[in-house]
Amino acid sequence: MLTWIAEGLLLAAVVAATRWWLRRVDGLGRARPFPVFSVAILLVMGAGLLVPGVRHHQLEDRLAAVAGILVGNPVEVDCQTAGQEFVDAGAELGYVRYGPDGVPERATLIKHAQCTELSRYLRSHGDHADDGQVVAVHVLTHEAMHMAGITDEARAECLAVQRDARTARLLGASPQQAANLARRYWREFYPRMSEDYRSTECRPGGALDQASPDAPWLG
């Protein structure tokens, strides 16, 4: 929405400048002054509103690139806007829609708060991640598992905890920072998930153990 408003304001500035160019003199042959003030105001307001939109799309592109590596195919990541958050009553932190055939789409929506935390994580390069950032990184990993075709929540969650460190590295964290984040999620947040998201086979040597060097239970 902000992007559309920004584009409208910039277009209005162009229209104002064009109208002046086409009518540079009045009916008496006098030069008409360029509408400096109005054009400048439109340009400043348009540019000011355009910057958040550009940053929003850049964040989505960065998250989509990371998720695409985890999935092994191009995917789309949409970050919920503040306006969408205002009217959203859902409790989920992100979701992937399923097609009529029951196959998950290769697109996800990440809620506004989690995208904000992911943006903070990117800016900090993974340094001193707080609880919100730890959860947000995992949400991106979890939704990537759904986009890879996994429909069962417990399986998606377990495969995600084994990939959280890789997600963190792809987002700019050092190997040690990434490993710490994955361990924190595994120890502090996974045990508090609802039963639908946990499995007794999500453990060292369990059926869902993929023998990944990034598994959080190795640290």
Rg calc: 24 Å
> Could you list the spans in which at least 5 consecutive residues all have pLDDT below 50?
none
Count of distinct structural domains: 1
Number-wise, the strands total 3
Distance between the termini: 45 Å
How many DSSP H or I helices? 8
Strand order of the largest sheet: 1-3-2
- Helical percentage: 55-70%
Overall pLDDT, averaged?
Answer: 89
Q: How is the biggest beta sheet arranged?
A: 3 strands, mixed
Shape: elongated
Class by alpha and beta content: mainly alpha
Q: What's the SSE pattern?
A: HHEHEEHHHHH
Report strand %.
under 5%
Name its key features.
8 helices
What's the quick description here?
The chain is mainly α.
Task: Explain what this protein looks like in three dimensions.
The protein is mainly alpha-helical and 219 residues long. The protein has one domain. Helix content is 56%, strand content 5%. It is built from eight helices and three strands. The protein has helices spanning 2-22, 36-71, 82-86, 112-124, 131-147, 153-161, 164-170, 175-189; strands at residues 76-79, 94-95, 107-110. Strands 1-3-2 form a three-stranded mixed sheet. The radius of gyration is 24 Å and the shape is elongated.
